[in-house]
Structure formats: structure tokens, C-alpha cells
Design goal:
There is one protein chain. This protein has 666 residues and is mainly beta. Helix content is 6%, strand content 56%. It has six helices and 34 strands. The strands form four sheets. It has a 22-stranded antiparallel β-barrel. Strand 23 and strand 24 form a beta hairpin.
Amino acid sequence: MSAYKTLLLGSFSLLALSSTAHAQDAAPANDKPTEVVITGSGYKINKDALMSHVDILTRDQIDQKPAQGLGDMLAYLPGIRSSSFSPGASRPIIRGLEGFRVLVLNNGMGMVDVSALSQDHAVPSDPTEARRIEVLRGPSALAYGGNAIGGVVNVIDDRIPTQAPAKGYEGTVALQGSTVDEGLQGAFNIKAGKGPWIFTFDAFDHKTKDYNTPVPPQLLSYSEAAGEAPDTRSKQTNSAQDMRNIGAGVSYVGDFGFAGVSYKDTDYTYGTAIEQDVNIKLHQERWDARAGINLNWLGFNRLDASAGYSDYNHAEYEGADIGTQFLSKGEEFRAALVRDGQGKVSGTVGISALKRDFEAIGEEAFVPSTTTKQNGLFSQYRYDSGQWGVEGGARVDQTSITSNETGFDRDFDTVSASLGSFYRPSAHTFVGLSLTRSERAPADVELLANGPHAATGQFIIGNPDFKTEVGYSLELTGHLMSSENQRFSLDAHVYTSHFDNFIDLRDTGTTEDDMPVFQYVQTNADIYGLELEGNARLGQRWGQAFNLNLAYDYTHGDTDIGPVVRIPPQALTLKLESKGGAWASYAEVRTVDARKSRLGTFETATEGYTTVNVFTSYKLPETPNVSLFAEVRNLGDVEMREATSSTKDAVVEPGRNLRVGLVYNF
């Protein structure tokens, strides 16, 4: 407990002393408004002043995105790929890390699901319900614990409103359809009330059939290895999806801040695609409470508090018969005192606690029932003089995992810390260097798995003697911001990470129950890479302003027992945009390199591909709050297989797709 006390007392002392800083010493704003990020710190930071790589998707962007899972929607961002197990199950992969190293949040709170357990498990949240999505690459363990050692995706909705709508009500209706899978999607949300009581309601429905493919889904080598005839299908059978969300919330808003509660119910059925008769039915009920209280105490000016409860059920059906069920019930609590927007120093000190009861039922329940408890204390602060600054923090966690079935009972104490410094050579340039130590307790499945998993076709074995996983990361960041006299902008990140006791799932070369045996092992690992985002203002013509956007990423990973498996190959995306009047359009070319070398013993080579997407939207002159849009994805109907997918040899990406839709904001 001494580490907790030291961190708590140090944080209070530092932030209390910072209350003497003068507001007029705050860092000057850029010439143009910048996006503000809160995820990962609790206090607001301009995106162009961050020492880590962050991307933000706004509501307008999300409304016009294809009907996709979370991983697929984010996969075009540099450093981000999708697990691409099937259209129904796509989880983000960040800088080559996935599963228990990437934390998917809803308004800063954990999903309390089992999507990290296996690639066939879906995230129980559709991106369409989000007001914005913030994506943080690299270790974010200070605010959220060791499961954020690879990065964070925070899906932020407005189900618990923080302020009243300007005219007493506002909302959105979004509709779209797609030809490749005969898909239909509808979403509706409304926020009403002038205060102090504000009410929200939202609903979402998405249905698809099996999608068309540019080539037969199974590679010839896959069919031959399975002793099957060559594949002649033109559809990805068992890839249909059916998802429904309903949510509501209420807040009390005033000069004190806000406080509110919300409820969401999710039903989701999807095919695994790789197995012709295996479908997954997912149901989750979730309650959340959140408050932001304005105050003036010891230099802090806000208290943020959140609590959530989730009841999650994931059932795998083989035909009409239920196979394995995964149940997860849990609650989580977070509270943080925040110093934000007051002089040169911003900071936060907080606590978090969670409990999750996990149960697997069925003959192929490869993980025993467990209870996981975690308590954490964290602090992070930032000093910004205007030209230079420093940022740092620390977090300590106590995690216990118990299983009455096996008699397993272990506690893990983890410590994470970071320190960084930045410098602004000019008003439109920023350079930062940060060093982070992140520590993660092993997950229950990594410790206790022992059995067959039908959906992935693997017999999985854990190791109850695993140590904590520790990562050391160094990241160099550079921002070149555009201005009236600067037509170019650039966001560059170079990073390297070393992991002790890196937990990896590897093929043993043996079989059990007619399945290949995969075992979790610990080794050392090194991952490094580069991410670039650039923009150039090309000028105006025909009433349109033209911009050229570039995104590039490269990731390399090694362990003591071979290359990091399913590491994403380098990718380059070029997008030509035009905006003017009622029109907004773009043409996008994306090239993903092949991955034919540096493969794990159970991996196969992956061909590269180049695909083209074309999009346009039009705001109706009489009703400019109504937008019509159309897009052709995969214009060339090319074959696309993702190296990050464990099913890529039998599941190909969709073929050419015409997508049309409407967005009405009121």
C-alpha cells in the first residue's frame, strides 16, 4: 500500500501547488481551432500538442461511414488494422498488438465483454451510436490500467447528456443501403430538454445477407490442405449479420455540472464465415451513471465520476444446437479530480475499481469460470510554458484472479509510469519525446485455458505460472501545422517498444480432439514502427477546395521465438478531397503490401492489394440539414485478404459495393 500512498500524496501536493499558476500564462492557441482530446488524461489537450498519436472520428464522419464493425471502420487509420475474423467480428489491432493489450471503451468505461478473448468474439457496440471516436496508439496504461498497454479506442456517445441542446432538441436520422450484401441500416437519436432535465433516446438496426466476393473465398491451397474440392462460390457463406441497439438516458444539468444515468440493450447475431454452420448470438444489457461536478478545491476545478454495470451473454450455435456460452457480468467505477484550463499546469488524480465474473458453459468451454478484481490509483500532470513543457504520471494496480473450479488464486501488483517533454520551435511546429513503462497482469484465458474452441478451430492451453508482462516504449512525435501561409501539415510518429514476458499464442505442432494445439507462452519481444499523416491544400477550382491527404504506416516485430505473428504489412493511403458549396467528395487509393516472409510456423503468406474507393455527398439546397451520399468501395473488385486475420485463407474481403444513404440532422 505504500506505493498508493506515495502516489496519492505526491499528486495532491503537486496539483495544489499548481493553483498559484496564472491563467494568463496559458499556452497560446493556434491560428485555427484545433481538435481537443480528453481520453488518456482527463484534462483537455489540443490534438496538435499531444506526444502520442491520436485520431478523432466525428459524428459527421461516422454517419457517412460504411456499416462495419469497429475494427473495420478504423482500419484505414495509420497504425490501425482490423482482426477481420468475419464481418461480424472485427476488433482493432494497434501497432501490431491486439486482444488483451488493446482496450475498447464506452465513454471511458470498459465494455465488460469477452471480445478480447478470441478473434471470433465481437465488440458489443456499433460505431454508429458514437458522437465521436478517439483512437490512442501506444501505451495508455496510466489512465486505464495494463490492458491499455497497446492502445485505447474510446467510443463516446451522448446517451448521458452533459449540456442542453441549443434549441431544446436535436437529433439525427441516418439511413443507408449496400449492394454487396443487400444490407440495410437505420439509426435514430434525439436529445430533448431545455434544462435542468435532459432526455435522450437512440435506436439502431443493421441487417445484411451473405456478401458477394470477387473470387472464391477459399484459396486453392486451403481447400487442398483440407482435402476439399476447389472452391467455386461467389459469396462468403455464413457472413450475414443482424444487430439491434436501443438506448436511453437522462441527465440533470446546471451550474454545478451534470449528473445522469443511461441504459442500453444490444442483440447481435452473426455468422463466423469460416464455419458454414456456426453462428454467434450476443446479448448485452448495460447501465451507466456519470457525473461531472464543478468545484474549487486544492487547485482542482472538476470531479469526474463514472460507474457501470454490464450483463453479457455470448452463445455459439452449431446449426440449431447451442454449443459454448460465455457469460460476463461486471461492474466498474472511476473517479478523478481534474485540474483543467487553469494556467500552465493541468493534471488529474483518480481511482478505479472493477469486478468481473466470467463463466463458460458447454462441452467446449475451454476456460474455467473466474472472478477478476482490480483496484487502481493513478495520477498524470502536464506543465506547458507555451514554448516547452513536460508531462508525466504513474499508476499502480492490484489485480486478483480466482477460479473456484480449479482452485486457482493469484494476485498481481503492477506499476506503470511515463515521462515526456516537448518543445515548440515556432507557433506551427511541435516536437515531443516520451518514455513509458507499462505493466499488465495476465488475463484469465492466458492463465487457465485448457480445451477446444470450435469457432476458431483450436485447442488452447494457458499457463497458470505466467508473470506480469512489462513494456518499455519510446516515441518521438512531430507536428507541422498548416496556417494561412503554410499549405502543408504533417503528423509523424516514430516508436520502439520492448516487452519482457510478452504473452503470445503459438502453434505447438500437435493435435488434440482433431484440432491443432495452440499454447500461450512467454517470451521477450521488440516492436518498432513509423506512422505518417500529411495534408496539402492544392487550391480552389470550379467552386471546390482541393486537398490531398496521405497516410502511411510500417510495423516490425520480433520475439525470442520468431517474428510477432500476424504483424500488419506496411500500407499507404492517398485521398484526394474536394469541398465546396453543397458538395463534398473524395477519391481514395489504398495499397497494402504483401507479407510473404517473416512468418510464424502456422502462418501462410498474404498477397498485397490496391483498392480504390470513391465517395460523394450533397446537401439539399432547400433543406441543408439533409445530406445524400453515395460511395463505391473496392471499385476494381479486387481480391483483398488481411494478413492480420486468422481466417484470411478462407474468408476474403467483400467485392465491389455500391452504398447509398441519407443523413438528416434536426
